[in-house]
Amino acid sequence: MNLEITVIPAYRVSNQVTPEVRIYSDGEVKMVLTLQKEDKIINKFEYEINKGINKVFPSFKELSGRFDLIFEFFDKKRKLVYSSKKPYEVIDSSCRSTTLIDGCWVSVYHWSEDEARWFNKDLRRLTDEDWKEKIHDMNRVGIKGVIIQNLFYCNEYAGQHNMTVETYRGKAFYPSKIYPERFDIAAKDPVEAIFSAADECEMNVFLGVGLFAWFDFSEESLKWHKRITEELFEMYGHHKSLYGWYISEEMFGSLYYEYPYLKGSDYKNIVNFFEDYTSFVRKLTPTKPVALAPNNIRFHEFEKEWKEILVNVDILIPFAFARDPEYLNIKEISEICNACGTHFWVDMEMFAWPLDNGLVPKSTEELIKEIRMYDDVEQIYGYQYTGIMNSPDFKYELGGEKTRELYTGYYEYYRSVIEKNE
Questions:
Q1: Residue 307 sits in which domain range?
Q2: How many domains does the chain divide into?
Q3: What is the DSSP string of 379-390?
């Protein structure tokens, strides 16, 4: 029997949030979900699972701490046909947020030499073993989710290039057979290294499918993304830490209405992109989510257009809130996501603003203060771990002393939250 399970959020949730459990089955079965702590059964849930994709919503409201989620599937004769176990953490919280950094972006190499002036040189030096160490360092401070920012280096922009799938000019960060030209980095396959370490740490990885071109959701971009997704699935789909698909192109909250190179009505390209791409991905990985990170600026002013897009986006992760905290639109975005059945997470910019000295870390105090801006958001993902937060034990500077101070300071904060929760 073919079964696939995905829990959203992936590893950790506030007890004020009801997680979504997606199950794909090619037959009718009964599922028993047991919450177990060591040898003690905390709770049990039973569900009838139909053929196809199912969604169930177990409540963890009265719980806190770390558990095992044990999934057992039984056929009509009550015979056990499949079982799996997943570690999970429930934070006893007064808000929807876990008040922690639940995941982070990582860049194999940052797209902007100017912004990444303090760490791109070191990123280029990282070997496969170094990447494994970076993932273990993230796990040590409770950062359980990884979003690989992009898997190709290509600084083209929508409406400003003439590339096709055949004439694409990007360079791969991994050993692609479709586009064999490699970007010059020391690591032979940083993607495999990230996955293998994430498997060991029970972490979760979004593959950053991109970059075709920034903000580009054209027909050519769609074709490119489908080809690359197939290759990525063939190469890395066996990893248990493969969690979802992240579209790297990003987008403006105002869509193309303030973008001079395309018409406002071209937002329909984005609608068509996700309608087709998400349907395509469901055939490869039926329960794994598709995610997009636009900025938040004027997002709620385009409610009609975003609702057309978000019905085919599983997780929205907007950024740029802290750039203008007087005009937070978290409530408005949340209402739009709720209407579409889309999970609302946040892309918290861990770097100081404005960018007059490149990407440099916020202080620990500034970071913790910003975390509490997002009390009404389901998950907090930080942009970005690489170059902004760095273990004191790591051999490369990757941004200098301030990155080590942020790692140490955040670790102390993380431990304080977890110890209260245990």
A1: 103-421
A2: 2
A3: -EEEE-STTT--
